[in-house]
Amino acid sequence: MSTTDTNTTAPTQNRAPDFIRQAIEEDIASGRYGGRVATRFPPEPNGYLHIGHAKALCIDFGMAARYGGTCNLRFDDTNPEKEDVEYVDAIMEDIHWLGYDWGDRLYYASDYFGRLYDFAEQLIKAGKAYVCDLTADEVRGHRGTLTEAGINSRFRERSIEENLDLFRRMRAGEFEEGSRTLRAKIDMASPNFIMRDPVMYRIVKTPHHRTGTTWCIYPMYDFAHGQSDAIERITHSLCSLEYEIHRPLYEWFIRELGLYPTRQIEFARLNLTHTVLSKRYLRRLVDEGIVSGWDDPRMPTLCGMRRRGYTPEAIHAFLDRIGVAKTDSVVDFSLLEHCVRDDLNKRAARVMAVLNPLKVVIDNYPDEAVEQLEAVNNPEDASAGTRMVPFSKVLYIEQDDFREVPPPKYYRLHPGNEVRLRYAYYIKCTHVVKDADGAVVEVHCTYDPATRGGQSPDNRKVKSTIHWVSARHALDAEVRLYDKLFTAENPSFEREGGDFTASLNPRSLVTVNGAKVEPSLAGAKAEQRYQFERVGYFCADSMESKPGALVFNRTVSLKDTWAKIAQKG
RNA sequence: UGGGGCGUGGUGUAAUUGGUAACACACUUGACUCUGGAUCAAGUUAGUCUAGGUUCGAGUCCUAGCGCCCCAGCCA
Among A7, A204, A347, A561, fewest CB within 10 Å belongs to which? Predict the structure, then answer.
């Protein structure tokens, strides 16, 4: 976890209350839950959290915080075939990273397996549930269609005694996986599929990551979630839109069982342009080696974004701006990038780094001289202070910052032109040295000693200020330029083949090996964030950067007005 | 086709709950600047899915259409 961040759990105040806040405020006003607010964040431990989960958990934890309530963390671990402890710790780390804490309220749906089992027997005894021997295919065949009612299972009218006996034997492991299920006896003709005698329990003989082989029957989501909410006395169970259709069943179980009447409220989940946010696709990216892992800096996972250099504050700001509503929407990736830049601009220390070095020789500068020049660490934050940067006769500048033949409106270095070296001197290009192929390998300049520090006594202006590093003092670094993983706005809609990988961006990672960075970066710590002046925001890679072998990840580029001008020609 | 939900600029959210469409991102132009960054200023794009209706007045209410999303896992 980052140690330098000032994490925040405080929700933004000055925004019109969204519909969830309105609902909660109404419930508080009416005394529906005695003025209490209790929410929960219920991840399934079968993958890593991504920015979409961040929206959900910020709503869950944020609502609780706003109304002085509590938010439980509950792992929804009812499917041993898909879940693993590997994910539990990662999920907790990510929640903490976003600045939230569940105190001592860490729960697992699997903790409730015993009570859930008792609830099931309760429904059987009330004649509201039955053991069904239909195969999965038969169940599907009995379900009906959008317009036709389903048909009742031939096992629907078993006696309570038989159901009880069978269910107990299911639990005892007497039956094969898939051979029987426990189903709620509701209405096979319901226009809502979810109510057509939904499965409550299925037989699964895979060991569970927490309960081991204690159980061989597991509750379905619908038979676990609402009851878990009720057990924890959750007042507001906030979830995404696809569960709206489950609400009648959620309430049916609670009513039939006589449990705490949690209110479920649904909101639209987050969609982002140029990315995918489904576990299935994210898993494929990892499994197929398209990215290096769940924490690849191009991934929209929280661990990936953290490694990329995103801050929790930026994510909170982003989430605050997109709001909460029930409309399906797709948020522009550029809004996220804006929030990241906005945050980093205020806090990232400025340094000079040259990604594609071009040698500059100051012909009239003393051969062996070295000067230490003062540079501002952050123009947005005076308290960040200054540092000394070494200057000498031979420097590196960015290849992009020199043109032998300048295009229109180009006012960086070119023959005859004078520019400022940031915090150093004005230099004027006199001539270049080329190699056999005609490529410029050395730019020769003269400097004006009177402009030390970057100011001219005669007040003459230079149009451009460029960054540089002293050749003999510079450190080598590897720089990873990350960009959007997909070129398509909506990758999952793309292309005839129908595969979302069709729009993978071939330049989502460009590795620069010969970068030259200023010496102050020698001790860059993991996830330490910097602005490479005029280039972008970067952070030391948490996995691979070491002293002597620095690796920096580009979090996001700086806005590049020149690129736009150049593009227009 | 049954059911559930949703339609406001390129994008996302607002609109004192019936009072004359706002904020942000994006985009454009300009100012300023020791980052072509940041900042500041100005500007373009909607007459609120459509058609009727109620009303002095409708994005908000009514009616009928249209469009989009979700649901036929022993996933969550």
Answer: A561
Residues A200 and A284 in one domain: no
Q: What is the value of ipTM here, to two decimals? A: 0.96
Same domain, A256 and A286: no
pLDDT tens per residue, range A278-311: 999 999 999 999 999 999 999 999 999 999 999 9
**Contact, A453 CB vs strand B, < 7 Å:** yes
Nucleotide nearest to A138 (CA to C1'): B74
Q: Is A446 in the same domain as A520?
A: no
Range of the domain at A448: 353-467
Residues A238 and A301 in one domain: no
One DSSP character per residue, A352-398 reads: -EESSEEEEEETTS-TT--EEEEEES-TT-GGG-EEEEEE-SEEEEE
Instruction: Report whether pLDDT(A409) > 60.
Output: yes
- The integer distance in angstroms from the CA atom of A115 to the C1' atom of B22 is 51
- Residue of A459, A329, A469 lying closest to A390 (CA atoms): A469
pLDDT for res A9: 34
Q: What is the pLDDT of residues A192-228, one digit of tens each?
A: 999 999 999 999 999 999 999 999 999 999 999 999 9
Q: How many domains does chain A have?
A: 3
pLDDT of residue A3: 28
Active-site residue, selected from the candidate residues A25, A32, A36, A44: A44
- The span from the first CA to the last CA of chain A, in angstroms, equals 45
Residues A120 and A172 in one domain: yes
| A337 and A368 fall within a common domain | no
Task: Let me know if residue A283 belongs to a domain.
Answer: yes
Which residue among the candidates A233, A279, A321, A326 is catalytic per the annotation? A279
Say yes or no to pLDDT of A501 above 50.
yes
The better pLDDT of the pair A526, A475 is held by A475
CA atoms of A179 and A155, how far apart (whole Å): 13
Examine the domain organization and report whether A56 and A153 are in the same domain.
yes
- Cβ of A175 near strand B (under 7 Å)? The reply is no
Report the nearest residue to nucleotide B2, CA vs C1': A147
Determine the protein residue whose CA lies at the shortest distance from the C1' of B4.
A245
Q: What pLDDT, on the 0 to 100 scale, is given for residue A130?
A: 98
